[in-house]
Amino acid sequence: MIKAGIIGATGYAGSELVRILTNHPKTEIAVITSQSYKGQNYGSVYENFRHTEKICEEENIEEMSKVCDVIFLALPHGVASKKVTEKILNNTKIIDLGADFRLRDSDIYEKWYKTSHEAKEILPETVYGLCEINRDKIKNKRIIANPGCYTTCSILSLYPLVKEKLIDINSIIIDAKSGVTGAGRGISLGTHFDEVNESVKAYKIASHRHTPEIEEQLSIAAGEKIVLSFTPHLIPMNRGILATCYASLNSSYSYGDIKSAYEKYYKNEYFVRLTKEGVFPETKWVKGSNFCDIGFTVDSRTNRVIVTGAIDNLFKGAAGQAVQNMNILFDIDEKTGIEQPPVFPI
Amino acid sequence: MIKAGIIGATGYAGSELVRILTNHPKTEIAVITSQSYKGQNYGSVYENFRHTEKICEEENIEEMSKVCDVIFLALPHGVASKKVTEKILNNTKIIDLGADFRLRDSDIYEKWYKTSHEAKEILPETVYGLCEINRDKIKNKRIIANPGCYTTCSILSLYPLVKEKLIDINSIIIDAKSGVTGAGRGISLGTHFDEVNESVKAYKIASHRHTPEIEEQLSIAAGEKIVLSFTPHLIPMNRGILATCYASLNSSYSYGDIKSAYEKYYKNEYFVRLTKEGVFPETKWVKGSNFCDIGFTVDSRTNRVIVTGAIDNLFKGAAGQAVQNMNILFDIDEKTGIEQPPVFPI
Amino acid sequence: MIKAGIIGATGYAGSELVRILTNHPKTEIAVITSQSYKGQNYGSVYENFRHTEKICEEENIEEMSKVCDVIFLALPHGVASKKVTEKILNNTKIIDLGADFRLRDSDIYEKWYKTSHEAKEILPETVYGLCEINRDKIKNKRIIANPGCYTTCSILSLYPLVKEKLIDINSIIIDAKSGVTGAGRGISLGTHFDEVNESVKAYKIASHRHTPEIEEQLSIAAGEKIVLSFTPHLIPMNRGILATCYASLNSSYSYGDIKSAYEKYYKNEYFVRLTKEGVFPETKWVKGSNFCDIGFTVDSRTNRVIVTGAIDNLFKGAAGQAVQNMNILFDIDEKTGIEQPPVFPI
Amino acid sequence: MIKAGIIGATGYAGSELVRILTNHPKTEIAVITSQSYKGQNYGSVYENFRHTEKICEEENIEEMSKVCDVIFLALPHGVASKKVTEKILNNTKIIDLGADFRLRDSDIYEKWYKTSHEAKEILPETVYGLCEINRDKIKNKRIIANPGCYTTCSILSLYPLVKEKLIDINSIIIDAKSGVTGAGRGISLGTHFDEVNESVKAYKIASHRHTPEIEEQLSIAAGEKIVLSFTPHLIPMNRGILATCYASLNSSYSYGDIKSAYEKYYKNEYFVRLTKEGVFPETKWVKGSNFCDIGFTVDSRTNRVIVTGAIDNLFKGAAGQAVQNMNILFDIDEKTGIEQPPVFPI
Q1: d(CA D292, CA D278)
Q2: Which residues of chain A does B51 touch, with a Cβ-Cβ cutoff of 8 Å?
Q3: Secondary structure class of D57 (helix, strand, coil)
Q4: Mean of the pLDDT values across residues A173-178?
Q5: C181–A contact, CB cutoff 8 A
Q6: ipTM score here?
Q7: Which of A76, A186, A320, D7 lies 20 to 30 Å (CA to CA) from residue B187?
């Protein structure tokens, strides 16, 4: 059994990790920690775990690294980079669900996150844990940067088009819609029920921190620098992300041409499901699962391709992909514990 | 592996069965049928199953009974009773999710359902499959009547009080609240999004068909005839039932007195979770699970006990309990395939 | 024009008052105050008022009383009673949307609100402003206690039955369901979107502070002391209250008997709408209006009457009724500014 | 008093018209018709009108034209064009809320609507009733084509940029989000509560019928042909449209440059509210009103402008704008009956 520790287990991503690992046949949760609820029974913080006994401990990553085979970090940005050290990495694997190790370029990190990066020496050995793209690079790493929710959905949706040079890389626009769990469990007027319910808004237009992450990964795929527009929206629902992506085609490609590109990269990917022509992804079809559904339309009137991708932001967009990364790291079947079909209607 | 057939697999209860059995380690889905979608790929009807290949067949229960160890019926009332015959019961086990075999008294069935009962000869051998109450009677049966959603929640909430004669059986009032999946997938103005969303209503006041089912089972527990008030309400959410139950206490019992009664019956029941004093069940804490959460308050001002019970109507209130019944029938661990913690937030 | 002041204009009830009074043809808003947002433009706090210029002032009730014909107080309990003095009442009319002046019996207030009452000398001259019941008493008062939301709905639903002695007053149970605006605009985990959405729960069982208010008013109607059960529930929607009320009939009354009682009191009440037999109130049909819809069923099986009442908690349950009280106080048509039909679908 | 008739009063747009006109001080509803509910009391179809007496009549437009000063048509496309004749136009004004008279080019109509246009002779005299843009052309017309919901929001959001030639007209992308009332009251699996709730999807990608309407109007503004991308999305809420619009700037314009363009056209428009820099429209701030809120961001990284516009689809996007058109036609204050502030929270 893999012994897992979770630091920050009482946020939404952390709680989804607890849930997924509870169902995982080859993992045992050794330690969970919480700053806000230390000493409390996890089942009193998340009463879906009412039937269990599990105490939220005070975090001590060094001690945890001695008993855990892997430690998941579900922390605000700027915190993880201060905790991970060479010593810890010698003891255990780290899968960080936060932003600190996602960007290769620490200057870009510091510019978008408006804070200094505290672990630049570790950056070179981290890998961006988007499993379908970087599986081979993940295998032997000590530390994985688990991708963001919007980024997972956006990159998977656009990767084949960029990689195969089918689109004008200066024309990319991503209009993304997220459920409210993406904002976490911290209370604010912006997540107060009556302020969110029955309304839709764009936010952080042209300034959301997932933008450089998407750009960096797609630039790597393209082999040249990509700058794009990314606009997140808040949708009155709990879970789910839909990314609607627009790009101008480099030539008058047919539906079949584009389809071939997607199949080239995803045909054998269990967790990526291409929809049939004329069928578009809906977040309800991926809820509670690790799947990413992708569909696209070729619009000959504008010579654009419009791609829509859907994921569950807490599952494939956070905890599920973290477990997928763990499975790869420990060389067990990548689907272990996360292959369940989506839950509908829920 | 248990070979399972599902008749009526494209309703919400049927689809939840497909999902649960897909995750069940000791079952294999042999046949699924659908009247509305016969010949179609299940993954095009329920696109959460987009990654699978499973054809909705035309129903032929006799042929199915030859290849299936168990057949689940998820059909409108009045249909199941016409399909189940002695011959079929000799071949396979039947778990009926509909109403036809739930009431022992066929007169009451005919009165409330306004139709004649077509399988009165089979009624005597059926058992009411409320697992926590009737576990022992289920084991060797050929046919199980899986309880209704409101009834499961209501009976589990009141059973110990009735059984232990702590309450005035003429004073029982059940005010129940259900998510909209309880109404099924059939379209109607009453389930049109904008007609349901952002509103709450009572419906079928003093005339809902789950009333005689609750009365019959509680009467058995009491050893005398119980007549009660049951009022269902529609809540703008997908899943979940909360039953708020009121009854006058037969004496001035304390919280501890009542607690003892609940513990007597449920202390060792995995799927029944009693909440702590002052904590009340919420449907979110049981969503996507087979749990029934129960809490209660003793109100000394009115000498009443107020009990609230919460279940997931499609899981413990339908498909999950059906699988629990299957597990009992086939003598495997009752929790197999249905012991996952609830999913939150979703 | 009536000059109105609003103290506490940035809570939900206060903002609904601002909105209703903006549309009121015989009122002018003279002053609005807010503790949290003083000095700010109201249109930046409530952006539905983006097109207006209105500054949130610091509260000075004495100064306000010199320029306002009426002052509305939309404040937390315990605050209003410290502000209202004889001097102020000599200058202006007070309509208090809070709880401080609702209960005649200050001992009961102190017991349920767990604080001392600071204006006991004013209590005797206040009137409980449930317009349909106390209209005549309101006319010449200086201070009106505007009823609570749950209480308005519950009392209107039960009043004719109690007044006409049709029911056993020891058998009353009120099971109420409210949208989340009832909890106000203050943030908390309990009103965080993902914690409320897609779930239902009972709360403050047998201990909600609207209980003594309902009891006191119904006791006055009955001419004897009534103790009852009141259970509030939180529903995942913004607005609306549905009260489902149960009581045992004193005799085997028919539907027509009960109907006569309701018609006796409400036939000429514009804002009370009795539904037809077999039709039950739904909160969507009263949203954005001052109406209270009432329907009932006589259940001969249990000899109970089940009454459901529906209101918009922020309108008839707070700001709308406050304006109705103002209209009565200033002797203008009671419907002025609040007679619009409900808004549906919204 | 203006005597108004409404044909198709029992759809959502029709019912919103009934509601707005009921509150309108200079209008009297003379006749309402409904195909589905003829002979029934309107208050039994829309129970928010429970307190009124109004019968849904069988439609006879010729008779209506003799008694009505204006007739509103709220009908499926292809129906209105068969009803409007020269004779009728000689008797009364027509405001058509449907699509039949919106497109000047009947070839485009026939191509996108896949039906032949039955009133080509009337097309030349119709005017596209987007009040803020075409006010002067509306005044003396006999027939007004009331704009679509998506189109109202999209055109108002982009008009100043196109008119002032600030953007590359080949770069326009509109990503729109709508509440479910946009789909009307007709039942379907696609609007079944549990299928819509808690999910988001794009639909009719590159093929929605509002596309040519937006293109035609913006082409007129630009003085050259515009082809653009329009993608509608369904959001789990009742009302509201948010249009997120992207376009490349023709030069490196500043925020102030763009702002000047918007102010040039909208400074004196009561119903268009420009948000402050850094503040983005949200549909909740316009619900229940005729306002269109518009905000924008200049993204220097991509040299794009991102504009978001928000309206209430049933009000400014349908019935409210229809009444605005009526007010213009009858030369009364354009805001009469529709100037109320938005309702929040609701």
Answers
A1: 17
A2: 270, 273, 291, 341
A3: strand
A4: 98
A5: yes
A6: 0.97
A7: D7
